[in-house]
């Protein structure tokens, strides 16, 4: 027997069989895994890039794909994506959002950003960008003026 308290403070008795109790524990574990992995991945990727390659920071977390922390970055995104797509709730809307977010996380891991948009990565590894160097935020010189477009 388990007890719950409603919003008015009344206690209700619920019969929960052992299978339901196991499912409750497993979904709690699944939610905690998603949260902890999502929390520690950016910290781990940034710390690893700093310690192993002296890359202080990048403009985007996706730029760490082009560092030695690529495997950690991709594997954690794919893992979180798989966990999110497996996550189920009684609410249909929550299920759809979890599936879409899971597919998006897998997509981010498998289809990385263009390395030219990560300035520090482009400076350290120019062969990734074909010798071109773009800044994370284009300067005024990089963007043609409106009059140049009208010609």
Keywords:
5 helices; mainly alpha; about 150 residues; single chain; two-stranded antiparallel sheet
Please indicate the count of domains: 1
Q: Unreliable segments (pLDDT under 50, ≥5 consecutive)? A: 132-138, 143-151
Number of strands: 2
The helix tally amounts to 5
Q: What profile does the largest beta sheet have? A: 2 strands, antiparallel
Shape: elongated
Portion of residues in beta strands equals: 5-15%
Question: Cα distance, first to last residue?
Answer: 78 Å
What would your notes on this structure say?
The structure is a single chain. This protein is mainly alpha-helical. The protein has one domain. It has a two-stranded antiparallel ribbon with strand order 1-2. Strand 1 and strand 2 form a beta hairpin. Helix 1 runs antiparallel to helix 2 and helix 2 runs antiparallel to helix 3. The C terminus is likely disordered.
